[in-house]
Amino acid sequence: METFVIIKPDAIRRGLIGNIIKRFEQKGLTILRIELRLKSRAWCALHYSSPDLNSQIYHRLKEVMTRQPLIGIVLEGEKAVTVLRRMIGATDSTQAWPGTIRGDFGTLPVHENLIHASDSEDIVEQEAKYFFDPRTDC
Ligand code: UDP
Ligand code: MG
Question: In angstroms, rounded to a whole number, what is the distance separating the alpha carbons of residues 43 and 98?
């Protein structure tokens, strides 16, 4: 099974790329694709199209996710979607368990929570397609 992950700008700025990728390797996940891309606001609207996000959160997120490059990664492994969600930890880093990426490295504010991982199998392919589509680059 595959899943889709984004290392967000705050993680890159803080020098956490190696730490995060190391965890994927230690867990036995295979990196199928990895690219640094500067994405557009149009991409952000596609990626965060969930109606759960209120407009204030989305507005902040859009700024953060389009100002600096992101690292998009397709990972393969058994139950990869579930495994990744458990490895990243709770959305709010202050609530995330130690041992998770957000729990070990995350600080406030909540929108700068280091990493994205697809939350269900149904959206993995679409999220990866949007991210790697050059028409959604900045
Ligand atoms: N987010 C936020 N405040 C919130 C909820 C979400 O800033 O109260 C941001 C945060 O960056 C999060 C993203 O919106 O990663 C997407 O929200 P989601 O609920 O999908 O969280 P995730 O799946 O990333 O844990
Ligand atoms: Mg989500």
Answer: 32
Please measure the distance between the N-terminal and C-terminal CA atoms of the chain and give it in whole angstroms: 30
The closest residue, in CA terms, to atom 22 on ligand 1 is 91
- Catalytic residue set: 116
**Rounded distance from Cα 113 to ligand 2 centre (Å):** 11
Residue list, ligand 1 pocket, CB within 6 Å: 53, 57, 61, 91, 110-111, 113, 116, 119
Q: Mind listing the pLDDT tens digit of every residue in the chain (138 residues)?
A: 999 999 999 999 999 999 999 999 999 999 999 999 999 999 999 999 877 788 899 999 999 999 999 999 999 999 999 999 999 999 999 999 999 999 999 999 999 999 999 999 999 999 999 999 999 999
